[in-house]
Sequence to fold (382 residues):
Amino acid sequence: MFDYVIIGTGFAGSVLAERIATQLNKKVLMIEKRNHIGGNAYDSYDSQGILIHNYGPHIFHTKIKKVWDYLSNFTEWHLYHHKVLGVIDGQKVPIPFNLNSINQLFPKNLAERLEKKLIENFGYNKKVPILKLREVEDEDLKFLADYIYEKVFLGYTTKQWGVTPEELDPSVTGRVPVYISRDDRYFQDPYQGIPKEGYTKLFERMLDHENIKILLNTDYKEVLQFNFETGEANLFGQKFDGKIIYTGPIDYFFDYKFGQLPYRSLNFVFEQFNQEQVQEVGTVNYPNDYNFTRITEFKHLTNQTSDKTTIVKEFSQEYIPGENIPYYPIKNDKNLELYRLYKKEVRKYDKLIFIGRLAEYQYYDMDMVIAKALKIIDDKIK
Ligand code: FAD
Ligand code: UDP
Fold:
């Protein structure tokens, strides 16, 4: 009856379902553990009518025109450019830390000297990861690098990951490099925005097709069994000959045979206010204060007008299977090595396609997941 089973209805699963249904004209069963589609990009209206991102703030940004054009088939956009301020020494300064942040925090003479030296050493409009900046020899720049490291990265990273920046793959803190520029935006990608009617509406439009059936509230292991010895699968007790696309945690699929892959989880605490606005930008980071990492006020992102507002505070926590949700793969050499063992297992079976942030153990943004899904279909059609 079905040609494909897709486990998970986040961007990885949903883009593939839509493409398979419309471009390959094949039948798809989607199995989703949660009681809704959309994975971590899901949004909904809270009790005071504010559109919130239930699994933390999601800002769409990409350099890939093809990805933007693809999503634009299912949504119009609120053309939003995200801004983040970080509370440093009692002041709110632009993050990524940039030339404006320097000018706000340091006396004029020192700020001018630092700015000049940064431009001489790295060039204007360049992005320098903090761990790279810390390698400089110059005394003034060394002071600056240590300052940024301690005030912007050390506390935040320790809260978010439970380890220091050095204990993670450099690409993690490299996501938010020091920016030698006066551009205060969080991202510089040419395509940025928030779906005008929300992400959930976008997913609904993608998946509204007669070739797609969705089973919610179901862990796939309840209805689908995969035999690791024969490579055969059973769906609802009958032999299933089609392909299985899996977007959940890779170690769970293989019953943790090589041990658990560490992920990081979060606790989202939402607060409602009977006032129009509580902070000046979409997100305020708290690297040094409190137990949460950041506060996001959704109305900045969504452009919703209301005399009420809702914020979310993010408290990071250890991931415990069965208890909370794995949000972030923890990228370091040891974990990536363990991941590669699982990846080798996937390759043994023609039937299996593993894609997405959890199944590939990659710190993917939404656009990268969508690009990968589109490529799988393009390759297949070719
Ligand atoms: P997911 O969205 O996680 O979907 C996987 C789905 O599989 C889930 O619905 C899950 O319930 C389901 N599933 C798992 N196991 C099973 C099972 N056993 N049986 C059935 N179903 C199962 N990206 C951006 O581009 N911009 C942002 O601003 C941004 N902000 C983020 C903020 C936070 C706090 C987080 C956690 C992520 C953020 N991301 C952002 C990343 C974005 O969420 C991911 O790139 C995207 O969700 C990945 O899609 P996916 O389909 O791979 O995974
Ligand atoms: N980071 C930090 N201080 C900040 C912002 C980011 O230390 O003010 C580090 C931290 O380790 C964080 C990583 O950079 O986890 C990536 O930040 P990003 O905002 O991309 O995280 P995400 O939105 O994916 O949670």
Notes: Residues 338 and 344 are 10 Å apart (CA to CA).
